[in-house]
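Now read the record:
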Amino acid sequence: MKRLMNVLLVLTVLLPGLAACGGRPSVPAAQPLRVLAAETFLADIARNVAGDRVQVESLLPLGVDPHSYEPAPGDVARVAEAGLIIVNGGGLEGFLDDLIRNAGGGKQVLVASAGLTARTPRAGEVADEEHEADPHFWLDPNNVVRYVENIRDGLVQADPQGQEVYAQNAAAYITQLQELDRWIAEQVALVRPERRLLVTNHESFGYFADRYGFQVVGAIVPSVSTGAAPSAQELAALVDRVRATGAPVVFLEAGVNPDLANQIAQETGVRVVTGLYTHSPSGPAGPAPTYIDMIRYNTRAIVDALVER
């Protein structure tokens, strides 16, 4: 009898495992939501909303310009595996339609800038001859509040059980963005209004200029895309505008060839400031590892260059 009881005890322990291996099929565990953000700055914003609940990856590597990005062979598989794709929108991701099509189509795509209106060039600005809308909404952190709201709502739709988490995270991050906006305004106030003049590599700082009272004098590449190339006439016209306005600095993004900027500097006597972070953070070991850090870094660089010593 004692031996029989021992056998029954062993069967009691083993049978549940046997039932899982054979007999009735087991129910597969729900797969966690995988989120793929197009750009690195966008992935950082999305992570602040998602928290630890879902995995957020960036499609583009750090330091890569989305205007000229050509998808890598492995990108098709990454898009195919994503449950939600987050894009900036506004024409920034021209490569994405073909990539999604090659991944089988039917992907859920969230446009972070949905609901925002593209800026209209102000009086005195040289408009993009291609009449392309400016997609650089994120360089004004007030626009990123809308990004956060859209991302929050998209995550809730894809993962309703995480609604409370996403709402709390979004609210906390929006508070940080509002603090960032106030800090930028305080820093810009150190620059005399007549020196708030921006000459940049390409037309990317319009929303920043509109928010904080800068005048966009012009850009070396007179386009919202870095893929364009300036003509000799356009460069000559920019030199004339720099001289006429007294703009003291040309600002370049990280990784940009400075040759044309140095040519303008030689002709006008302006300074060239390099290394601004516009389309990508710097990476963990750099000076601007997050979206908020990159906006702070840019603001310090611009203010330091324009404040009279």
User: Anything to note?
Assistant: The first helix runs from residue 2 to 21. Residues 34-181 form a domain with the Rossmann fold fold (CATH 3.40.50.1980).
